[in-house]
Amino acid sequence: MKRFLIGALVVLALFAATPLVVHNEYYYFAAYVVLQFVVLATAWNILGGYAGYVNFGSGAFFAVGAYIAVALYKAYALPLGLQILAGATASGLLGFGVGLLTLRLRGIFFSIATIAVAIVLETVVVNWTYVGGAKGLPTLRPAQAPFFESYTVWLFFVMAVLAVVAVSAARYVETSWIGRGLRAIRDNEGAAECSGVPTLKLKLGAATLSGALMGAAGAPYAQYLSFIEPTSTFSLNYAVNALAMPIIGGMAHWSGPVIGALLLGTVQQVVTVTISSEVNVLVVGVLLVVFVVAAPEGILGLFRRFFPRKR
Amino acid sequence: MPYVAHPSFLVLGAYATYVVAGYGVDPLLAGLMLTPVFFVLGLGIYQFYYLTFEQRGSDQGLRGIAFFFGIAFIVQVALILVFGVDQRLVDAEYIGTSFETFGDMRVPKRMVVAFGVALALTAGLALYLSRTFTGRAIKAVAQDEGALRLMGADPVRIKRWAFGIATATCALAGALLIIVGPVDPNLDRLYIGRTFCVVVLAGLGSMSGTLVAGLILGIAESVVLTTAGTAWAPAVAFGILLVVLGVRPAGLFGR
Q1: d(CA B176, CA B189)
Q2: Residue in B with minimal Cα distance to A53
Q3: Which of B185, B203, B220 is the C-terminal boundary of a domain?
Q4: Tens-digit pLDDT profile for residues A99-149
Q5: Residue B35: which domain range?
Q6: Are residues B204 and B166 in the same domain?
Q7: Is B94 domain-assigned?
Q8: What is the pTM of this model?
Q9: DSSP secondary structure string for all residues of A225-241
Q10: Alpha helical stretches, state H, chain A
């Protein structure tokens, strides 16, 4: 635990120090997206990887965070920290609601229900004129960025903090009794219930935490793009990536989604710039199918197979 | 089976029809010609799914869902890459004309054709599932695989067959889809909602329920379309689906 905390702090310090070395704004712009996927993938894994409930609606949680933040920013010019908090709270509540669905739905029906939630919410936002509806809404960033010289670098650092928070939360869940309970639910929910695992409480907790983290990842989105619009905010890409990254990285350990997100996120940034953004989406789909078929335990599983731990 | 890729094959069917109809073939005939191709495609996909997941018994739930989700995604993106995001449509003598009936009422011929074929297809499938040995076996495999094995039928073969038929109907249904209106690659997300809404509302495995549920959904969508506006229409199917899943997962006619 201590070693992990020190490691996390070192990583954050490194992120904070990068502006001294790297000056090209574009790298921060691209790295922000990769870090955002680290948060999304880690959050997805809490419910999907540990508890086995496949969420197809990650885009909805992300977008709820983004839209709550932008609505509050427009109404009260709330600072970024409070926007993130509000976005996380709203998406956490949504997560709680989705968690209640697990009472009755399992497997594919739960997944379809999460798509349903996403589409219904997207329709609501399209018809919500205060935040621009289908036309979208341009947002003005604050002129001054705290601590850093440019606002993009500041957003990059904020997302880095969120990523570290998300990974720490996932690691805590995984290593504590909560993670053991969630894994029991995944393997056999009936048996877990009979052995005294508080299944409903754990599922609700996991769904709420997962949702809140996704909402936090979405909250700075409008500030990042200076614009928000429903189709791209609710994009299926978030859902597919949030699901593909943990599966490709490996779902059994907190580092799996991180590896998957760093790898896939970087590849996508490169492909988007060098080839085209449609091909980049295709890459994710193909990799997802290839890994599910050929390496069901993900990159972590491959690693463990080739380098077995010596005891 | 977590077959979320079904709506993607529906859209794929529509595009395949578009391509074949481009050679001057009637779209309905084109859809019919494509059914064997789609049937084989379905057999292949199931065989692959069986070999990689069912036979290995490797955590079918989560990875099976992810597998089909990935397939659906690939089909969608491939369609975008090949055809672009523009809407496509086909031409035939019954498209764009209508029957004149009682005064001001007009019934578009393409709707009548699509309705007739869809009804015939559903009735045909219902008869097939209730009357033939293979059809009954398909119904049985959904209930209890072990029992089917004890009766001397091979559940894998039955499921492969069912998968082939399901995919084959996608070709014909896709043809109907493009006859009724223009098609674009992003339609499949809407049809995930519609497909599952109808199936869940009807109750899994109930063929007559499917007709009623389809009717209910269609009317509900039209009512919302004319009263609340087009922007709300996509939420109808998913809204109904959510309510049914939350309140009565067995559906209207489920046992």
Answers
A1: 18
A2: B62
A3: B185
A4: 888 777 777 788 888 888 888 898 888 888 888 888 888 888 877 777 787
A5: 6-185
A6: no
A7: yes
A8: 0.87
A9: HTEE-HHHHT-HHHHHH
A10: 2-17, 25-45, 58-76, 80-101, 107-126, 151-175, 177-187, 189-194, 199-218, 221-225, 230-233, 236-249, 255-274, 277-294, 298-306
The phi-psi region of residue A107 (left if phi > 0; otherwise alpha if psi is between -120 and 50; otherwise beta) is left
Tell me: do B13 and B40 sit in the same domain: yes
DSSP element (H, E) containing B16: helix B6-21
The answer as to whether B10 is a domain residue is yes
* Interface check B108 vs A, CB under 8 A: no
State residue A161's pLDDT score. 92
C-alpha to C-alpha distance for A56 and A50, rounded to whole angstroms: 16
Residues B103 and B228 in one domain: no
Among B185, B201, B224, residue at a domain's last position: B185
Q: Do B13 and B97 reside in the same domain of the chain?
A: yes
Q: What is the model's pLDDT at position A68? A: 92
In angstroms, the separation between the Cα of residue A28 and the nearest Cα of chain B is 28
B198 and B95, same domain (yes or no) = no
Report CB contact under 8 Å: A107, B61. yes
Give CA separation, A259 vs A28, A183, A273, B241, in Å: 19, 21, 21, 36
Is there a single domain that holds both residue B100 and residue B163? yes
Q: Are residues B139 and B44 in the same domain?
A: yes
Write the residue in B66, B189, B246 that is nearest to A104 by C-beta: B246
Same domain, B218 and B242: yes
Strands B106-108 and B98-100: antiparallel
Residues of chain B with pLDDT under 70: 1-2, 57-61, 100-103, 254-255
Is B1 a member of any domain?
no
Question: Beta-carbon neighbour count of residue A177 at 10 Å?
Answer: 10
Distance from CA of A133 to the nearest CA of B (A): 10
Amino acid identity, residue A199? T
Q: How many domains are there within chain B?
A: 2
Low-confidence ranges of chain A (pLDDT < 70): 1, 309-311
Interface predicted TM-score (ipTM)? 0.79
Residues of A with CB under 8 A from a CB of B: 48, 52, 54, 56, 101, 104-105, 107-109, 111-113, 115-117, 119-120, 122-124, 126-127, 134, 236, 240, 243-244, 247, 278-279, 281-282, 284-286, 288-289, 292-293, 296
